[in-house]
Amino acid sequence: MTDRMTAQQTADYLGVCLDTVYRMARKKEIPHYRIRRNVFFSKQSIDNWIKEQEQDNYKNEPQVSSF
After folding, report:
1. Dihedral of the CA atoms 29, 19, 43, 27 (nearest 10)?
2. Please, where are the H alpha helices in the chain?
3. Which of 9, 18, 28, 36 could form a disulfide with 5 if both were Cys (CB 3.0 to 4.6 A apart)?
């Protein structure tokens, strides 16, 4: 079993449209690699990226004091 996903498989995995995946890759907002003109995504890298996004969002939430 391969860890490699196409852009369409990545879009399905993330629940977003294909254009969003290509746009994010073009802006280097999501981990990817190219083989010639083809764009691929590592499932492990995507999973790690999701965890980082979750942690960053948690860190940036305003802290509510519980007095």
Report:
1. -20
2. 7-14, 18-26, 43-59
3. 9
Residue 40, classified by CB atoms within 10 Å of its CB into exposed (0-12), middle (13-18) or buried (19+), is middle
Could you count the other beta carbons within 10 Å of the beta carbon of residue 50? 13
Model confidence pLDDT, tens digit, residues 13-62 = 999 999 999 999 999 999 999 999 999 999 999 999 999 998 887 776 66
**How confident is the model at residue 67, as a pLDDT?**
58
Distance CA 31, CA 58 (A): 21
Find where tokens 């079993």 sit: 1
Q: How many CB atoms lie within 10 A of CB 4?
A: 13
Secondary element (H or E) of residue 6: strand 4-6
